[in-house]
Amino acid sequence: MKFFVDTADVDEIRELNEMGLLDGVTTNPSLIMKAGRDIMEVTKEICAIVDGPVSAEVTATDYDGMMSQAAVLAGIANNICIKLPLTMDGLKACKALTSDGHKTNVTLCFSANQALLAAKAGATFISPFIGRIDDMAVDGMELIAEIRKIYDNYGFTTEILAASIRSVNHVKDAALIGADVATVPPATLKALVKHPLTDKGLDAFLADWAKTGQEIG
Ligand code: G3P
Predict the structure, then answer these.
(1) CB 177 within 8 A of CB 147
(2) Over its length of 217 residues, how does the chain's per-residue pLDDT go in tens digits?
(3) Domain 2-212 has CATH 3.20.20.70
(4) Looking at ligand 1, which atom is closest to the CA of residue 131?
(5) Fewest Cβ atoms nearer than 10 Å: which of 28, 36, 113, 139?
């Protein structure tokens, strides 16, 4: 499973990238707002840190506007992936951009039929929002399973990018189902390493080691 980090915080991205954990980055207008940075400037910085795809989202809602914003965003760096909303115009732009050789991420997916349309439009990634479905008291993970089944039935190569991830269990469950990618907030990505028995075991090893009076090297 690939790990993308879901943030526009350059310091967090740099730290996680140095740990060798990052296969890409996703941003959206809310994350750009949270970072308090200029979209062009911050996206350029992110693209220089990470080798993998960096999703940058259009904010136009009509096809022509999306296409002209996509041209601007694609000019930032070679690893830009154009993020488009799951609307009729977004799908049309997705088809045109992928036909033109651009990577695309179709976002705000909340149903299997929407994911089917995105695959038919040639999307590189589809982003089903697990957490926001959970918020409606419906199991968001079921959507990941449905999309996996449909894509496998027909050999669609669109990658399932599990998004709106809120917990470490979301990451595990998405991996068990076979999502290709999880885009995870920095704190959740770092929390994946934690286990109390690891800490307890390490403390015990270090205490016993101190009793030996030995040093390595
Ligand atoms: O990747 C999409 C993500 O940024 C949305 O997450 O927690 O706002 O639903 P959330």
Answers:
(1) no
(2) 999 999 999 999 999 999 998 999 999 999 999 999 999 999 999 999 999 999 999 999 999 999 999 999 999 999 999 999 999 999 999 999 999 999 999 999 999 999 999 999 999 999 999 999 999 999 999 999 999 999 999 999 999 999 999 999 999 999 999 999 999 999 999 999 999 999 999 999 999 999 999 999 9
(3) yes
(4) 9
(5) 36
| Tokens encoding 39 | 């979209």
Q: Which atom of ligand 1 is nearest to the CA of 183?
A: 1
**Residue whose pair of structure tokens reads 């076979």 in the numeric block:** 178
Q: Which residues line ligand 1 (CB under 6 A)?
A: 6, 26, 28, 129, 131-132, 163-164, 166, 183
Residue 143 CA, ligand 1 centroid: distance in Å: 16
**Tokens read off for 66:** 């999306």
Cα separation, 76 vs 63, whole angstroms? 20
Q: Which amino acid is at 75?
A: G
- For residue 70, the Cα-to-chain-centroid distance in whole angstroms is 19
Of 31, 13, 170, 169, the C-alpha closest to 161 is 170
Cβ 80 vs Cβ 47: under 8 Å: yes
